[in-house]
Model the fold of this input.
Amino acid sequence: MTRYFTKDHEWIEVDGDTGTVGITDYAQGQLGDITFVELPAEGASVGKGDAVSVVDSVKAASDVYSPVSGTVDQANAALADEPELVNSDAEKGGWLFRLTLTDPAELDGLMDEAAYKAFVEAL
Amino acid sequence: MRYLPLTADDRAAMLGIIGATSVDDLFVDVPAEARLSGPIVGLPLHANELAVERHMTRLASQNLSAGSAPFFLGAGAYRHHIPASVDHLIQRGEFLTAYTPYQPEIAQGTLQVLFEFQTQVARLLGTDIANASMYDGSTACWEAILMAGRITRKSRAVLSGGLHPHYAQVVKTMARFTGDTIDARLPELSAEADDAAVIAAIDADTSCVVVQYPDILGRIPDLAAIAAAAQAKGALLIAVVTEPVALGLIEAPGNLGADIVVGEGQSLGVGLQFGGPYLGLFGCREKFVRQMPGRLCGQTVDAEGKRGFVLTLSTREQHIRREKATSNICTNSGLCALAFSIHMTLLGGEGLARLAKVNHARAQAMVARLAKVPGVSCLNTTYFNEVTLLLPQDAREVVRVLADRGVLGGVSLGRLYPGVEGLANGLLVTATETVTDEDIETFATELAGVLA
Amino acid sequence: MSAANAAGWRPTMGDTTPQGENFTTKSGDYGLMLEEPLSFEIGGREKCGVDLDDPQGAPVAGLPLRKAAPDLPGLTEPETVRHYTRLSRQNYAIDLGPFPLGSCTMKHNPRLNEKVSRLPGFADVHPLQPQSSVQGALGVINELAHWLIALTGMHGVAMTPKAGAHGELCGLLCIKAAIEARGEQRGVILVPESAHGTNPATAAFAGFKVESIPANAAGRVDLEALKARLGPDIAGIMITNPNTCGLFEPDMKAISDAVHAIGGYVYCDGANFNAIVGKVRPGDLGIDAMHINLHKTFSTPHGGGGPGSGPVVLSEALSPYGPLPFTAKTADGVIHLVEEENAQAFDHSQGFGRMSAFHGQMGMFTRALTYILSHGADGLQQVAEDAVLNANYVLRSLEDVLQAPFAESGPCMHEALFSDRGFADGFSTQDVAKGLIDEGFHPMTVYFPLVVHGAMLVEPTETESKSGLDRFIASLRSLAERAKAGDRSLHSAPHFAPRRRLDETLAARKPILVWKGEPGPAGLPSPSEIGDR
Done:
């Protein structure tokens, strides 16, 4: 399993042709208390860079962009009752959705963990 | 000037601290060629309170006010008696001169009123939840259609012919710019509402059906049947209530299966006011809350654990969501919501039910008397406080002549549907609790005279 | 207090007793700080504040009768008056003190306006009465329209929009209709990054694509960047002038000329017209459409969030596309309501349609016209001058303790903009705002515009006296000093308001939007404990 990061602060963990997507711990810290997560419909096809999900805090609604193209297999149902999981466990239990990648080559343009760390530090 | 507290000495002292020699120095960014050197020519100069009041009173006196004549108009705006305490309370400066409650610690008065208002509206409409109000019934109606589109991801709305024509025009105007398809129809002069035609028009692409209850001609459509037909095809039923007092007598639309219920709240507390400001009511199922337009007030607790209220779910709103907002509506109709809520509190549910019975009984008395005028018949078999009369001639001219004789005798269908041949002889008449037996007798006599 | 107080200890707000407990009263009220339950908690089904007959006749057959009356408890008149009066005391209001919300324009609401709007000839007339019976009401609309056109130097005005954002929509629909009438496709509206959030929202609602244009270091639209983006796909620009930084756009005419040169239109957000009314006419700056918030510039009351009113003045180019209905006076002195049926007769067949039922916010029109007539052309000019003078006085009185990002570039207009730079670590604009509540003031607009860090936007308006401003300035100065010094008591402010900071996260995560009969959270006395008042 390999984890990749985007400049928009999403992470994607890839296992074969399946990817699990969430927002980074840094991103949740910037957003503050998450109050609601709008998730993509299961079965939807999404393109790389599409705004597929929305994360609401009290004062802001932030789009989440899909790091790669694919078909949404599953959305994290636990977030309906517990959106705060994105705050407490952003990079694990607070995942947003799983998708089947249609073009794994798109991963090449993403950052690895070290590169993302450096990217955040430079902000 | 009586509204400007700065004295000449103040102005001079303040300019000194700012470091400017004259107030014009503060307008340096306005290009000199566009800056006005003196008051705009041709406009009057300031006037004292007495002079302004005299001018405005003269304009007011050129209107025939509803209270000074036998009055029978409705068609989306209804005249009810407003208890004196309503206007007294809304004029308390703490309500009248407060802003949108963005600092909840010092706006609990407004916020608690909105929470109470939302609860009252939801219970009245029979919906799970309601928002803190919209501009008016017509804009609330269009917002409901947009919301149905977001929920169903379809964009064809079916409008009943019984929908207020101004509401239908607003919908058609806005749909032209959003690309929604609107399947609208005109009302027909039949005793039955057009339920069958509406149901037949629902197809797989339909996002919603919009049905007014009671409808523009005063008839009562069968909402339960329409709701079932709509929901069977994946469409939502939007019920529109322009006379909320009716819901003291007839079943609430939400209890009959409507998914979204919108309405005009002007009947309670607000008054006629020549058409505005009015009060858009908006209620829906709880599961649609995040697709709902308009401001919402919610309950929470403060740092000491005390119950308090805040504006909430504001991320749907345009000042935050910008180009992704759920609606165009930014302001609500706060002061009108307050007036509605106070009037509703004075009445209570039982009082509203009694008020509705009084209205219906007045309308029955009106119908009985007017139907005896030679040549006049009543279209409706069912109605609340408003019916459609059929006259032997163009009703529009009749209304004008009646007004000249000091009777405000309803709204002609020709005014609402100009140029629609089959409707010209129709006359909408309403009787609320404000109508006396003497008013009805005068109306009947004058109507007979005009038709003779 | 659970124990006797033999020592004669005297409580102060938020104090602890000699026994170490928080001081509380039995009622939950503290002198004139009054708690109030929900109306549902004190009302009853058998209570009613309106005396009504109970007619005995049967309703007509075939009605879907309600099975039971709506489940809403009532209150008698004395209880109702007390409920709402007690609630009203939990509100701050312009009648109590300055309300310096930048871009919201909270100024004194003259009471003559209220009196006039309640004359039966205005308050008790139906919108669909025969026009011969409402010539005075139509006259108000017509006279106000005349003033708005004259004050802005424009060609026409659409009176029906119900608030500012509705006015924005009206203006953009006019632009869209005009472009369609030319047989063109232009899909992009440019919006400066400092714009009110409603601007991009409205443009998107009207079906346009929104593109942002940057500001320059002086807080104004970057003219060169704008010119570089102009082209045949541009429908127009939405610009706020004076802008949301409280600054006039000195290049306004050049911006208009450039947009017109490529066939676009200029929409001006007139939320801040109060700063320039009588000093400059937007029509002279090349504006094609501008809404005027009557509740801001012409002081109709905000009422805790509306109703507003947003007439839109239009240039000659856009006037033919304005919405119905509107008023027109003919040579015989008769004022006509121009609606769908007679639009052609009044040469208005290209109008884009109807935006709302009836004829606009009449109750706001009577108030605004009364305000305008009271001030007159000379007084309105003084309004703008005093509003700008007051704002500059605040700016220069505080710029030594609060960073003012654009103070170097010259005077501000009607509002002074500060940032939170220089505050101690962990201190922000929010702390100063909540501290102002303890000082007895309503906070300024905070965190807007977005282009300034921790923005504080102060709009005093012309109806504040110098001594009132001096008190406000002294309080804000002291708060700025406390935020710089790291006074941690600010974090828990307000201490002296009807409520402490409220949990907005809880409200949004688990929305409770209607009362479902649950008792209030622990700590709130139940109605039975409060007892009979």
Notes: The first strand of chain B starts at residue 129 and ends at 130. Residues 65 and 71 of chain B are 9 Å apart (CA to CA).
